[in-house]
Amino acid sequence: MLRAVASGLTDVGLQRDHNEDSYAVLSEYDLFIVADGMGGHRAGDVASRMATESIADFFRTTAREDATWPFHFDTSLSEEENRLVAGIRVANRQIFERSLRSRDCAGMGTTVVGALFSRKKNRLYVGHVGDSRAYRIRGGVITQLTRDHSLFNDYIAAMPDLTEEQRAELPRNVITRALGMQDNVVVDLMNDDPQTGDVFLLCSDGLSGMLADEQILEIVESTVDVSEACRLLISRANENGGDDNITVLAIRFQEEEPLVDPLDAPTEPEGIPVYEAELPPASEQVTPTAPNTAPVPPSSPEES
Rounded to an integer, what is the distance from CA 148 to the centroid of its chain? Predict the structure, then answer.
């Protein structure tokens, strides 16, 4: 059975004065989340933090009791997919309602990418909204698992014959879907069956916008330590300019270490144990004497 070993890291970058990214690692649920907020008056960090906290709270609540879905249960999806989508949609509604109530939070929103691992099914479920990405690194190959919800991608889908020069003129970093924009949101889903040694990355565009996929692959394959991989990725993104907040969460899959049954533990070999006696100090040792071998005379009979 595989288990997920995960670590995350976030950095403000070199061009921003505060960090609007958030991430969460809930190892007890094998749940991993990255969010990249946006909005004036520092509301972006509020939105991203609300996203990670709302999804985490939803999972904690549904783990303690029967899941009460606030939305229709989609029978075409697995329970894990329904749970992940519901958590993201709950977060969306809370962010949207907060933006309506608070002038400082008006117009705030956030991207999100979340991954949920089922050990029993050995399957990783990924849901995302916006341009925060999920990657898989397997056998020396990096694969982008998510498709950015961006104006650039919409143009490319509508006009696939554009030349490279025309594509270079298209607007970048304009997202077409985010949490908090409306009272409901469509969550894109995908799933994958992890293999031993696979690394899955969740990241904000502060990483994917500063590093080519080949650079990400090279760094991740340089270490088996997921914490070190996150540190190296953020360091390289800053070396390349650090134009945005940078967040990365790395998940490595490895074999579960088998538990040793006490009844199966090795025991002492049968037989009588042999111990070496400890001699007393020389001053206390007794000098042996030769045995007395002289004949013993017969004793005289007792007088009556």
Answer: 21
